Amino acid sequence: MTTHPDPRSFEGAGDTTAAPKAHSTPATPDITPEPGRHDGWTPARQAAFLRELAATHNVAAAARAVGMGRQSAYKLRARLNGQPFDKAWEAAFLTRFDVLAEAALDRALNGVEVPHYYNGELIGTSRKYDERLTLALLAMRGGLERPDPSPFDPASAFESEEIGALIARVEHGPERWLEYKDDELEARGEFEQGAGAPLASPLLENGE
Question: How far apart are CA 136 and CA 118, in angstroms?
């Protein structure tokens, strides 16, 4: 049987600046510090950025909120292309888009009330419908999503809509996916059990 990475590595990939444990504490799995931490993008900062991005849909504003720059955020995403941070970034945009699309779709389906005036007085209203808006929204969302990953791809352990779970994965797991999907699923299960709650908890669990 092939030896897989220890799924408990979710818990060993926190900020590398954390204070060392006392000698009496049982040893934890040896996790090599992730590269690139000199740029200031610790796992906690990445998670905070992603929460802001999901709430604002604005990269520059989200970066400023965590004391970083817009360009450095894009550089981080480029470096981690296809990794948990990248997938969580995509999920943040999809989440925000869905909120906007829901309101726009309601207007497209139910119309917008248009007032009619005569000599300065309101004499009635009518509803205006625009199906082009609905079609445009459906086309836009399709363009935001990537093709579904292979069922064996470790990234497939998380759905694109699981923004809360993906942010938790970024904050508490290693910078890159584990080698196998089963490893990701096992690590996710152990983390959820230890946290006492599923990763797919409400998006803004720290409050907005």
Answer: 34
Where are the domains positioned within the chain?
A: 39-98+149-195
Beta-bridge mates of residue 112: 128
Mean pLDDT, the chain, as a whole number? Answer: 75
Say how far apart CA 36 and CA 68 lie, in whole Å. Answer: 15
Q: What is the pLDDT of residues 104-119, one digit of tens each?
A: 667 767 777 888 888 8
* pLDDT tens-digit series, residues 190-204: 888 887 555 544 333
Residue 188 has which token pair? 């996710």
Strand, coil or helix: 85? helix
Q: Which residues of 166-200 are buried (b: 16+ CB within 10 A; e: fewer)?
A: bbbbbbbbbbebbebbebbbbbbebbbeeeeeebb
pTM of the model: 0.61
